[in-house]
Specification:
disordered C terminus; seven-stranded mixed β-sheet; alpha+beta; 7 strands
């Protein structure tokens, strides 16, 4: 498995999430297995304290410690963001469960703001992110600089 960086990751995520365009960013960190992307995170709308993330994946068993550490290291340690915002449509129960499992907290709901119903807005603060601590932090520090 290997880290993949750049606009190709962003485009891959956009195709899988039915987004319009490519989130207005070229910053993406993907996870590839046998040369094929299996997961990706696009980072957009960074304003200093906050960055918006868009996440897509295929299959199972892609959320390794190494990859989780890298995708949270970038916004919190490199950008120095204080929080990450993720928006999930009400109809996407699997994505809601996934971001909640990662530690994101539901912060707000925008009634009727998504094609599947309400738009749910989640946040994760740096001080709440378990992926910045052991055992994740100690998994493979060499990957962190690969994504820089």
């Amino acid at each position: 498995m290997s880290i993949v960086l750049g606009k190709g990751v962003v485009d891959w995520i956009a195709r899988r999430t039915n987004e319009f365009g490519a989130f207005g960013t070229d910053i993406g960190i993907g996870w590839a297995r046998h040369g094929e992307l299996v997961a990706g995170v696009a980072y957009a709308d960074w304003n200093g304290p906050n960055v918006v993330c868009h996440i897509a994946a295929v299959g199972k068993h892609w959320a390794t410690r190494e990859y989780l550490r890298v995708i949270f290291d970038y916004p919190f340690c490199q950008l120095k963001a204080k929080r990450i915002t993720v928006c999930v449509g009400e109809g996407n129960a699997a994505s809601r469960r996934f971001v909640e499992h990662l530690g994101f907290q539901l912060e707000a709901e925008l009634a009727g703001a998504h094609p599947t119903g309400d738009l749910r807005i989640y946040r994760l603060r740096a001080d709440e992110c378990r992926y910045l601590r052991a055992p994740y932090a100690l998994a493979r520090p060499d990957l962190l600089r690969a994504a820089a």
